[in-house]
Structure formats: C-alpha cells, structure tokens
Design brief:
Blueprint lengths: L3 H8 L14 E4 L10 H4 L5 E4 L13 H13 L7 E5 L1 H11 L6 E5 L9 H9 L1 H11 L7 H11 L4 H13 L12 E7 L7 H10 L4 E5 L6 H4 L1 H13 L2
Parallel strand pairs: 1-2, 1-3, 3-4, 4-5, 5-6
C-alpha cells in the first residue's frame, strides 16, 4: 500500500542534476508531462543516480520531438562528469533512451520502463489537452496507475502533472505520437532491461514484449499490480529488478 507519508516525500523531492558520479551512474529520464520527482523512490535508493529535468518540466519551453529531447540529454552527458551511464527512461523517457542507444553512444546499459518502439497518442486526447487541460490531466493521472492504486496517489500524480504547462504537455504527447523506431529497434546493442506494469493501460504489456523480442539479449520484467507508473506504484519491486540488473553489469 502506498502510504501518505511516502506521497508527501515524493511531492517535495528536490530535483537532482549535477552529481559527481562514483562507479556506474544511473540517469533517470521522466515521461511526457511529468518531472524528475517521479523517480523519487529510485534516486533515494540508488546512490549514484541523476534524475534529469527536461526543458519545460516545469520551467521554460519544451520540445515537440523525441529527437530534440535526446539531443538535450546527450549534451548534458557530454558536458558533465558522466561516463558510460545507465539510461533509465519511462514512457517518452524510454523513447529518448532508445534514440540515445541508436546513436551508438557509449552507454553502459539501457532500461526501458513502460515504453515502446512506437508511441501513438489518440487524437481526442491531444484535443482534450487543448480544450480542457485540467480534465486531460485527471484522465492522464487515472491512466497512470492500476485500478487498485490508492486514490491519494492518483490525486498526487494529477497535482504534479498540473505543474507542467498545457503547451509543454501537448508538445510532449505530439513528440510521442511522432515517435516510431519499430524498424530500427533491433539495432540496439547495449545491455537492456525492459520493465512494465502488468496493468499498464498507456503502454500495454505487448509493447514491452515487442521490445524484448527484437532487442537481442534483453531481459523483461513484468510487475503485477502496477500500471504505467510502475516505479511509483510498486517501487520496491521495481528497485529490486533494477538493482539485480545493475549488479549484473
């Protein structure tokens, strides 16, 4: 059960970016309309980790393509003391991770969480963001967790999503809708862990299974009782899977 105290800590997470790495550096990349605090239970668990704040999340302007976000992350890697990072990307963040891996960067490993080689977005949802952002956020929050999730978690996710401007969130989901690497996903060569929530409504399990089938040597972990935000909803199980993977590198 997700305790209220955990929700409060999650909400007030200070953002991390510059960090002097020791050993492996885990680089966590959030998804569309989100911010670095979605990785709270990971950044406090893994010593050498960085939660990336993508442009516009929450300050400034965002981008409208996964490629632009990937270039931003690549620039940060090049200009910070980060060597052979383990990229951990959720949803749109996973798409960014795929882009980075396809660029043959010197990655130690790739972890794809609740993502896919293609991320289509329903046109009616894009329209809802434009016409009624608060209602769109409520829909997104409800889709982000399993039906059994604590209502407090759903409220907190919605509150956090509201911190991002409608323009940035719309740009994010347009970027997702344009993303399609189904024809190239087999070119990913680095060690890869794929994690999905069994109850994920936004990127169903078949998306992760497709990645697993086409990325040679990849590992697939499905976590029961979790939805799209598996790293929040089942953080202990998620951390254990990630910890075991990192230990094997």
């Amino acid at each position: 059960m997700f305790r209220l105290s955990q929700v409060i800590v999650y909400y007030f997470l200070p953002y991390l970016w510059i960090l002097e790495p020791v050993g492996l550096t885990l680089l966590f990349i959030h998804g569309a309309g989100a911010n670095p605090s979605v990785w709270h239970f990971q950044t406090i668990h893994f010593k050498d980790s960085i939660a990336v704040e993508l442009p516009g999340h929450p300050d400034g302007s965002g981008f409208q393509s996964v490629d632009e976000y990937a270039r931003f992350v690549e620039h940060q890697i090049d200009n910070n003391p980060i060597r052979e990072p383990v990229i951990v990307g959720h949803s749109m963040g996973g798409a960014i991770g795929i882009e980075l891996a396809l660029r043959k960067l010197d990655l130690r490993a790739l972890v794809l969480v609740g993502t896919g080689a293609r991320l289509r977005v329903r046109p009616e949802f894009l329209l809802k963001i434009k016409e009624n952002y608060e209602e769109a956020v409520k829909m997104l929050a409800s889709w982000s967790v399993s039906a059994s999730a604590d209502p407090i978690l759903v409220e907190r996710v919605a509150s956090d999503l509201m911190r991002i401007s409608p323009e940035v969130t719309l740009g994010d989901f347009m970027a997702c809708d344009r993303f399609d690497r189904m024809d190239r996903i087999g070119e990913v060569r680095c060690r890869t862990l794929i994690v999905c929530g069994e109850d994920d409504l936004m990127t169903p399990k078949k998306y992760s299974e497709y990645l697993h089938e086409r990325i040679k040597g990849s590992e697939l972990v499905t976590i029961p009782g979790a939805g799209h935000g598996v790293m929040l909803e089942k953080h202990r199980e998620f951390n254990r899977a990630l910890e075991n993977f990192v230990a094997s590198l």
